[in-house]
């Protein structure tokens, strides 16, 4: 039990886990588009990690440390882009970082997280831009739509978890838990359809299998469940396409 608590604190609560699964979600599309490169993987992980710890700890006593860490992360990411890519990639990365800051930052009077119902779509937007724009030479509309609908659906269970503590209007508070799940089902289904018609067979199969597991996990999402259900199992859905791809490639 102590080991599980330590694991949760060091891997999940530290934002490492969500950064890893987000990176693996991007790797899935990078492999499908044949743009897989280790410097890009490192760039995405650092960007996700620094962004999530900034969002979580900006209002705590660790604020100054977080600013220093984010500054170092920005320098490392800039170096990775300049050394391995070009100025266009640097501009794309900078725009995505700014969008992340607009989501929730202490220096803004009004930020995205405060706007009713917008949060789920905004998170889907940022993750989708990483997959369809940052890692590719040209903007890919199908990959954007697959990512946007899938990630938006995965954010909805977190609104279910937080419906009693959220101070802004969210879908579960507005239309109820069950109707929120219906929206999530529809979004996952749309992303699966686009994946089937657009992605290569092995990749569309991996995404289809991921969608089935995601349906099941959304179905069992309740606001009284332990936080680990959401911060581990729901978060893991982002990594499922890549994990299923590894299984299919092995066999």
TrEMBL record:
Keywords tagged on the record: Membrane, Transmembrane, Transmembrane helix
Domain of life per record: Bacteria
Spans traversing the lipid bilayer: 12-30, 36-54, 66-84, 90-108, 120-136, 142-161, 182-199, 205-221, 228-248
Protein name in UniProt: Prenyltransferase
Species annotation: Chryseobacterium antibioticum
